[in-house]
Specification:
This protein is of the alpha/beta class. About 30% of the residues lie in helices and about 25% in strands.
Amino acid sequence: MHFKFRTIDMNTKCSCCSSIEKSTKNDLTSHWNKTYNREIQKLGWYEDNPEQSLKLIEKCKLNKDASILNVGSGASTLIDELVKLDYKNIIANDLSSNALDKLKERLGNDSSKIKWIVDDLTQSTELNNLVEIDLWHDRAVLHFFNEPEEQNCYFDLVRKLVKKNGYVIIASFNLDGAEKCSGLYVFRYNKEMIQKRLGSDFELIEAFDHTYTMPSGDTREYAYTLFQRKN
């Protein structure tokens, strides 16, 4: 991997994220807003059918009023599918307001059924106010956090929000995956690495590698994981 990390204690808590420069956040917000000015169906991570995520969500056997937080929603069709499945408490988060606007436009009247949160997972303000999430879902967000302090903040937020017996689905580039996405370097994972970062309170329920075919025809290697928080 070709990453540069600052020297930092990997056990540092989320309060350290105040040291992440604001200019970095602003640059990333601008990057993703520009990215989502393009045609959504041509984006490298776009899925017509979020089949792998839906399979794992089905295994969770959630009630229809369960709180489902989809972080880094972008313009994901997963939100559309969750609405079709009649889930009542869906929360869509992204750093890019443009991305969520595209998703709202596609959903039309159904957009009123979603709670929308524009927020940074590594410097959270609104997300911090959520309580007892039944399911945390992340496809293709975690791997964009290269700095240890960003990663710490991400996993601290997971542990803060997900209730006992709640679930976590994380799909990131696996160790054989690409080193960059959308022009940005990524940090790749396997199930053991994600387990270690979540900690012993979370039990691995299922994990598998998946080769995703991009709209361009190129492929990307993902590691899908489903965890449940112990009671």
